[in-house]
């Protein structure tokens, strides 16, 4: 490659393993391994100095294709280095022990994402049915023009918001209690309405079927107020990347 040409790095895998065709990466560039000390960085040449939202999708596609061949450690989107030598020395060589240990730790594991989305009408019906204060205030405000009773309208909004937060805490606890025992570890991301919970689990590949059954049972337990979005298996985006981000080269 030309001197000074930037290299985009997608992730790390073991060197010299059999690979399917990784096809194209960001901006259609060919994806190729840069190998050193038993490790391989999945890279492509980057002929520009900016990235776009479309490039995020290309980043994920490369990692998902690589994951089909075995363990891969995702790097965060936007990891760029100054040529192949920098990849070998500052990324692979300087972090060989840490990267090798992470590859061993992640072998045979997959990430499964479970997100709960509140169904607004069902949720509000349940809140009104379960909360006498909300029901009474809502009935009192029926027929009142918008803005005619601002303090009471504000109070109703506060009561409903508090009930939603309470249910979010309960539903998140139910989801974690049912799924976490089937995982190696879990991660909880912040959930804002209409999201009930946003969870990622690191699961042994052999246990994926059992985990999927538990997700189905969870949907039945939570009922119509929560629609579950279940995604995976995928590379351990939420786990390997979290640890790799703290390294000096990232």
Provide the low-confidence segments as ranges: 246-250
Shape: elongated
> Rg to the nearest angstrom?
24 Å
Counting helices, strands and paired strands, the structural category is alpha+beta
Mean pLDDT: 86
Order of SSEs: EEEHEEHHEHHHEEHEH
Into which percentage range does the β-strand content fall?
15-25%
- End-to-end gap: 22 Å
Number of separate helices: 8
What's the oligomerization state?
Answer: single chain
Largest sheet data: 5 strands, antiparallel
Number of domains: 2
Helix coverage percent of residues? 40-55%
- Strand segment count: 9
Describe this structure in words.
By secondary structure, the chain is of the alpha+beta class. It folds into 2 domains: 6-107, no CATH class; 110-234. It is 43% helix and 24% strand. It is built from 8 helices and 9 strands. Strands 1, 2, 3, 4 and 5 form a 5-stranded antiparallel sheet that branches. A 4-stranded antiparallel sheet has the order 7-8-6-9. β2 and β3 (39-46) form a beta hairpin. α5 runs antiparallel to α6 (150-179). Residues 246-250 have low confidence and may be disordered.
Walk me through the topology.
Elements lengths: L5 E9 L17 E5 L2 E8 L6 H15 L5 E2 L5 E2 L2 H10 L2 H11 L2 E10 L1 H11 L1 H10 L8 H30 L5 E5 L5 E10 L3 H15 L3 E9 L5 H5 L6
Antiparallel strand pairs: 1-3, 1-4, 1-5, 2-3, 6-8, 6-9, 7-8
Helix pairs in contact: 4-5, 5-6, 6-7
